Amino acid sequence: MGRYLTTLKVFWIASLTAELEYQANFLIELVATAGNLVGSIFVLSLFYGRGQSLGGWSWEGALVVLGVYTLLEGITSTLLQPNLSTIVAHVRTGSLDFVLLKPIDSQFWLSARTFSPWGLPGIALGAGLIGYAAWKA
């Protein structure tokens, strides 16, 4: 297990180094995610304008669902999407054979090789919205 954690650490440090070459992108992604979340909250506020419930859902319950969606979208763009696109690239270029011959589990290598920090604002904002809505409820 220690070997896999060390390998994961090396993978993610290399990915972060490559992705954070342009540091302004992180700020742009934070602003874009926050703007998307504010827009979604605005649309929800149109439905819950006078403190009413919609389909049995309270305002706080709807905010929790929106927070869970934002959190899962952040996790997807941080961990799942970059790794799935590299699997397709390995198949397309024919380099998947080299991955299969490595002395580490191929599924681990393909599933955890890439880490993209661009989903971290979504994770943070989603978790914050879940916490706020749960506290208000």
Layout of helices and strands:
Blueprint: H1 2-19, H2 24-47, H3 59-93, H4 96-100, H5 106-112, H6 120-136
Question: Which short descriptors sum up this protein?
Answer:
137 residues; mainly alpha; 6 helices; elongated
Structure description:
By secondary structure, the protein is mostly helical. The protein has one domain. It is built from six helices and no strands. It has helices at residues 2-19, 24-47, 59-93, 96-100, 106-112, 120-136. Helix 2 (24-47) packs across helix 3 (59-93). The longest helix has 35 residues, at 59-93. The mean pLDDT is 88.
Shape: elongated
Stretches where pLDDT falls below 50 for ≥5 residues?
A: none
Helix content: over 70%
Task: List the domain count as a whole number.
Answer: 1
Quote the beta fraction.
Answer: under 5%
The ordered H/E elements are HHHHHH
Summed up, the helix count is: 6
Find the count of extended strands (DSSP E, 2+ residues): 0
The pLDDT mean sits at 88
Sheet/helix structural class: mainly alpha
Gyration radius (Cα, Å) is 19 Å
* Biggest β-sheet description: none
Q: How far is the first residue's CA from the last residue's CA?
A: 40 Å
